[in-house]
Design a protein that fits this description.
The structure holds 2 protein chains of 2 kinds.
Chain A: E1 5-7, E2 10-13, E3 19-24, E4 31-37, E5 44-50, E6 53-57, E7 65-68, E8 75-79, E9 88-95, E10 104-105, E11 109-113
Parallel strand pairs in A: 2-11
Antiparallel strand pairs in A: 1-3, 3-8, 4-5, 4-9, 5-6, 7-8, 9-10, 9-11
Chain B: E1 9-13, E2 18-23, E3 31-38, E4 45-50, E5 55-56, E6 61-64, E7 70-75, E8 84-92, E9 106-111
Parallel strand pairs in B: 1-9
Antiparallel strand pairs in B: 2-7, 3-4, 3-8, 5-6, 6-7, 8-9
The chains are: A mainly beta, B mainly beta.
Chain lengths: 114, 112
């Protein structure tokens, strides 16, 4: 297991298009998180899964955003009708139990909406 | 969760100890201090965390003041690869709230 994988690494899309990102967590981790990060800022929490259940969503997650984690394995984050303000790095992280060693983050997907 | 205050940027000479301060004056008794770093174009990387005792691992040492209102992350022998943004975060380790509140962090530049 090489850690948390995110795909794609970069995505350029036209405003109004839908995009979907994928995250493959560390296989034994039951918790998965999505964060968004804009330039010069720390990551902002979007949503959290424990196994397949989505337990928490940020107010940042508008109706255009949806996340899934079928079967408690990989997760997808979809953004519908993208806007220029959606341009950011989307980070996925996973953890196990009480997060003794913190979260393990992927390298992120950089979205540019033109 | 308590908020944290960190300097915007710091320089350190290669081979010297890098000391990164963090103020968390409103920290509660059951809140932990976590440190992460983010190297350019990568996701954040966990470094260390602690409650009230000083902690050390293979990456760094964490010194927490007795009143727990501030802490210092120490990289004992900084290398050029330690150039990154360092984030200090306070949260309840066993809280159901997983919304880590990240500030802008400290940009640490290691100079040859």
């Amino acid at each position: 297991d090489t850690g948390v994988s995110q795909d794609p690494r970069h995505k350029i899309t036209k405003r109004g298009q839908n995009v979907t990102f994928r995250c493959d967590p560390i296989s034994e981790h039951n918790r998965l998180y999505w964060y968004r990060q804009t330039l010069g800022q720390g990551p902002e929490f979007l949503t959290y899964f424990q196994n397949e259940a989505q337990l928490e969503k940020s107010r940042l997650l508008s109706d255009r955003f949806s996340a899934e984690r079928p079967k408690g394995s990989f997760s997808t984050l979809e953004i519908q009708r993208t806007e220029q303000g959606d341009s950011a790095m989307y980070l996925c992280a996973s953890s196990w139990g009480q997060e003794t060693y913190g979260y393990t983050f992927g390298s992120g997907t950089r979205l540019t909406v033109v | 969760d308590a908020k944290t205050t960190q300097p915007t940027s710091m320089d350190c000479a290669e081979g010297r100890a890098a000391n990164l301060p963090c103020n968390h004056s409103t920290i509660s008794g059951n809140e932990y201090v976590y440190w992460y770093r983010q190297i350019h174009s990568q996701g954040p990387q966990y470094i260390i965390h602690g409650l009230k005792n000083n902690e050390t691992n293979e990456m760094a040492s964490l010194i927490i003041t007795e009143d727990r209102k501030s802490s210092t992350l120490i990289l004992p022998h900084a290398t050029l690869r330690d150039t990154a943004v360092y984030y200090c975060i306070v949260k309840r380790r066993m809280d159901s709230n997983y919304q880590l509140i990240w500030g802008a962090g400290t940009k640490l530049i290691i100079k040859p």
